[in-house]
């Protein structure tokens, strides 16, 4: 398999019917935001007034994810812990305030979700399931556990004729979208016995991950066509630190 950067060439591979991921285009498209800056969002949240925030967030009411923070910072930032009972929840994609963060089971430890105080919207998505949406209001230093339960979307229908897409993406935790719909993270559609089944026709494929340039390509798929995409996402430079006021 040769690497692909923009317009991959289709390849013929044996069909593996162990695949459990399918895509059907729904009547209501999902929205996603592809602007990322090293784990911080550029969208302001509704923050509590009168608080002095650590300089690391540059004075803005922004979502932050840290590998580690000082004890002083932890007294200001709140933490969201997402809990899912099944593989469906654990492999679902997570958005906070419109920004994709990763899939649920990885958002812990060095990737735990730390937020500034105030109101935040959490959305969890999985192909073939209804969005799980919940708004939370965090207090400084608060730790909130959110139980996530996904429900099947009755609009979802598996196509009777399909094409196959196999992905090899680095990092493989990146979110994958087909025609603007989130279908899973890249690791679910690569390797032995793993691929994505989609309805034939023109399809827009988008791969996004915070801190990396978004990869996009459009393909025209024939019925029963096998298609392979291999690419390494390119890191974006971190924004310069703001001078102390």
Task: Describe this protein's structure.
The chain is mainly beta and 245 residues long. It folds into 2 domains: 1-28 and 155-238, Sandwich (Immunoglobulin-like), CATH 2.60.40.1120; 46-148, Immunoglobulin-like (Sandwich). It contains 2 helices and 15 strands. The chain has helices at residues 71-74, 87-90; strands at residues 46-47, 78-84, 93-96, 99-103, 113-115, 118-125, 132-138, 143-148, 163-170, 175-178, 181-185, 196-198, 201-208, 215-221, 226-232. Strands 1, 3, 4, 6 and 7 form a 5-stranded antiparallel beta sheet that branches. Strand 3 and strand 4 (99-103) form a beta hairpin. It is globular and about 55 Å long. 32% of the residues are buried.
Compact overview of the structure:
The chain is mainly beta.
Note the topology.
Layout: E1 46-47, H1 71-74, E2 78-84, H2 87-90, E3 93-96, E4 99-103, E5 113-115, E6 118-125, E7 132-138, E8 143-148, E9 163-170, E10 175-178, E11 181-185, E12 196-198, E13 201-208, E14 215-221, E15 226-232
Parallel strand pairs: 2-8, 9-15
Antiparallel strand pairs: 1-6, 2-5, 3-4, 3-6, 6-7, 9-12, 10-11, 10-13, 13-14
Keywords:
245 residues; mainly beta; Immunoglobulin-like; 5-stranded antiparallel sheet; 4-stranded antiparallel sheet; globular; disordered N terminus
